[in-house]
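Why show two proteins at once? Because comparison is the fastest way to build intuition. When a single record is shown, students tend to memorize it. When two are placed side by side, the eye starts asking what differs. So, the first record is below.
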Amino acid sequence: MSLTPAAAAPRQLLALLAASADQIVPVSVLMEELWPSGAPRGARAELHAHVLGLRSLLASARPEGRTGEGGRTPETVLAAETGGYRLDTGGGSHDVWQFERAAGAGYRAMEAGDLARAALRLGEALALWRGEPYAGVASGPRLAAEVERLEASRLSVLDQWAEAQLGLGLHAEMVPELAMHAAQYPLSEALNAHFMIALLRTGRTDDALEVYQRLCAMLERDGGRTPSARLRRLHRSLLSVRDTVLPRVPTQPRFRGGPTAVPMTAAPSVTSTVTPTATAAV
């Protein structure tokens, strides 16, 4: 069942309840989200009206009427609790939970040194992202914090996924992926470092140095920051490789064809990004 309120305030309210699905969200938190500058007179009555509107939408979304499986009704799905409201999923699914489960499995595989499984599970987590978090929903302080948390989680998973892929030797395959993600997160030292390593290991040292210079310029514009010690060490390694003069040894003519393509079965290509939703049997 897809449920998207047309009006901005009910959509924002539902998004916050979905972000805390199966948990009681206090009325004070809901009011702070809807009216961050201070609740106006009659705000509680307006909040209650929004809740009634959401329940009506829940009822109309089921062609067989108000009662669902197990006797569930809109009043039990969007339940009034002491001091607040709770969106009861009734054992339904939530893509944020799926993302976090897959990411957790990927992190555990990384710790165990199982790079293939780590790449697979972290890739599964990333594949759940289909758009910006809570796109089209107005964000008060609570939802804004949740969006920031989700973006940070995605960036962490992306970092670990790239590390696993490079550890599996997929440097050439990762170059276009990392070029895209480094452009999306230009201030991410981790992603830019992975990009530089992939370029270095595919013989593109000069391109890797250009990535470093671009990152330095971006960090400088972002409050006068400088690269971390890790990035500076990587930069020195790049310079050392570039400046190394290899002896010219006569060789047989080399085959000029392109490298054999390696299918990326360990993890799906990443599509930008997760729109958290919760589904429930009404």
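Second record. Ask yourself what differs from the first in the token line.
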Amino acid sequence: MRTSLRCLLLGSLALLAACATQPPKDDSLYRALGEREGINRIVEGMLINVAHDPGINRHFQHVEPIRLRDKLVEKFCVEAGGPCTYTGDSLAEAHKGQNIGTAEFNALVEDLIDSMDARGIPVATQNRLLARLAAERGEVIKK
């Protein structure tokens, strides 16, 4: 059942992304995620999951982990409506030459969902963040 729910969620992200092309005008999602500290814990959990995910961890072998964590926290914070500024590369530039496909992208999303589940983030809140992030899916997937 959980796998079916995830497939439905992942399939719905494209539809949700159409509604989420600009960062939110309020900080309710940012607060629901636990503000910067909560987002930091979510990202760290996701990166631990990625490190143990043989389907995608090769894409992160030559990445400086502290910088990656910090830029992901910034990105998630901005997308959640927090008081942050994203200072990293564009997603297209950051993923250039990696040939990331849909299955790999979905695996990363599942690692993120697992991290949010482990921190007790309600599904509705998860869906709000995932919808925000899905808007830039095309910048990552190049296959």
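One difference worth noting in the second protein: The chain has eight helices and no strands.
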